[in-house]
Structure formats: C-alpha cells, structure tokens
Amino acid sequence: MQADINPTYLTNIEAFYDIRIKACINGPQQFVAKTYILTDENKSLYFCKVINNELLAPGIMATLPVVEEMYQKGIENISYPIRGGNCLYLLQDDTLIVLYDYIEVKQSFDYSPFALGKNIAKVHAISPRINAKAPIESFTFPNKALFMQRMENTLNSQSTDPVIQALKSLLQMHEAQNQRYIAELETLGEQCQKKHEALVITHGDIATNILVKTPDDIYIIDWDEMRLAPAERDLWMKEEVAGFLEGYQSVRPDFQVDKTYRRFCILQYYFERMNLYFSDILNTSASDDFRLKRIERLAQGKMAGWNLHKVEVTP
C-alpha cells in the first residue's frame, strides 16, 4: 500500500466500515485534510479524508448527516459520506476519518459558470426540506478569542524563530487594517442578526471545490464548512463571473443580493482563513519551508484562492 497513511487507521477503517482494503494511494492534498483513495476487495473505490484540525473537525461531523440527506433527496452531484454502522465518521484520538463515495472525475476550472450557479441554487432551494441540522450562522467573529490571542502573542513575541519573526512583521504591517476590519465585521454581524430572511444550506468555499465531468455536468465536493447562512456566503466569490448569477436566478428568480450579508460573508471568510493559516504557521512540528510558504501566501492575499481586493472595496 503506497501511501503515507497510518497503518492503524487502515485497520480500524476496515473494521468500522466492514470492508477489506486491497490498495491505498495518496489523494490530492487539501487545505484541511490529508486524502487517500482506497480500493476494496470488490474493486469499489472510496475517498478517505483524514482531518486533524481542532477548528474544523466539530463542524465537519455536524455536516455529514446533512450531506447524506441532501443526496437522498435529489442533490446527486455531490460527494456523500459512507455509513459505518450507524455513524458517518470514525474518531481516532484527535483525528477525524471520513469515507466518501469516490467520483471518478477530475477537479478542474473548465466548467460553465451558469451550471455552477444553477447547482448551488438547487441546494439553497431544497434547504427547507432537509431535516438534518446543519450548523447555524451566528453572525459573529469566527473564533475571535483564538484569533486575538494568536495575534497578540505574535506581536509581543521576542522569539528568534525566523518564521515567528516573519509573521510578526506581516501582522505589524497590517495591524491597523485588521483592527478596522474586525470592528466592521462585528458591526455588520449585529446588523445581520436583526434581519429575518430565511437562511439556506451553504457550502462556504465553492470556488475550488468542483469536479468537472463536462462543462455543464459538475459536482460540488467538500462540504466541510457547511452552514445555514445567507445565500450570499456562496455567491460573493463568483458573482462577477459572467453567467453565474444568471444560472443561480434560473432556479431562484426572485433572489436579490443583500449588500450587508455580502460584506459580512466576505469579512468573515477573511478571518476564518487567517485563523487556519495561523494554525499552519504556528505549528512547530511542520517544516520551516512549509510555514514560510504559508506566510508568503498570506502576505500575497492568496487565502485559499480568493482575491484580497474584495475586502478592500466597501460596497
């Protein structure tokens, strides 16, 4: 088995899911997980995700029953979790392991924006019919205490670690900007809490999580950050791409973008991604090269593929 997975995980996966694994290879590296492609004795394929992230694991566990029910009720162009007995995930100490159906289609950007808009609108439209409970948007600063602690500790650090010094310099450069965004995010959150529009099942990061069979036949994968939230959470990344909103409104013709929700979702994503980057950068068990590359991406505004200019522009 040519993969870097812990052999104990494979043994426990076999017992939990009642399968016999004959092959295991490394899958694509994800931002929050290591992935593997498993083949069992019947030549069935599974996509395995191994997640060791204290910020995301609890939310991922909560989303799995929702994704399963979405698939059962007609949202078929998604990757759904496999059950092991009565459970959709396996816990190994602090590590979360999930098996999904394997979709033999490659990840690509060669898709129709209209098709993407239409597919995500179908998920939003079916939301009232889903009984499983997705995490609900609270319209607050995501993991604020952790973010502020990390920022303060880094800014006050006297460490000679070159990685910490590089992060400190970057945070000093943007400290005033971040404080301004924090204040704006919290004000917008208070405004959003007073709104009464229905929330929908949102993905949260559709920009890069797409498998393409044909430009019009696509699969939206990795629902790890699913949340009942304003539709704008799924729209702001692609709203400027020709055809995307037209595809969305072909399913939800009466929908209009709310600028307050939109701005909140952009800023919230910004700080959620910063916290995830902090986890990688402050992880001293990772190589200095890896940690410095994360700082470089953070400095360039490449937070999981989105453009920082969207934060700079106030609607």
UniProtKB/TrEMBL annotation:
<dbReference type="InterPro" id="IPR002575">
    <property type="entry name" value="Aminoglycoside_PTrfase"/>
</dbReference>
<keyword id="KW-0723">Serine/threonine-protein kinase</keyword>
<dbReference type="GO" id="GO:0004674">
    <property type="term" value="F:protein serine/threonine kinase activity"/>
</dbReference>
<keyword id="KW-0808">Transferase</keyword>
<feature type="coiled-coil region">
    <location>
        <begin position="164"/>
        <end position="191"/>
    </location>
</feature>
<keyword id="KW-0175">Coiled coil</keyword>
<keyword id="KW-0418">Kinase</keyword>
<dbReference type="Pfam" id="PF01636">
    <property type="entry name" value="APH"/>
</dbReference>
<feature type="domain" description="Aminoglycoside phosphotransferase">
    <location>
        <begin position="114"/>
        <end position="237"/>
    </location>
</feature>
<dbReference type="InterPro" id="IPR011009">
    <property type="entry name" value="Kinase-like_dom_sf"/>
</dbReference>
<protein>
    <submittedName>
        <fullName>Aminoglycoside phosphotransferase family protein</fullName>
    </submittedName>
</protein>
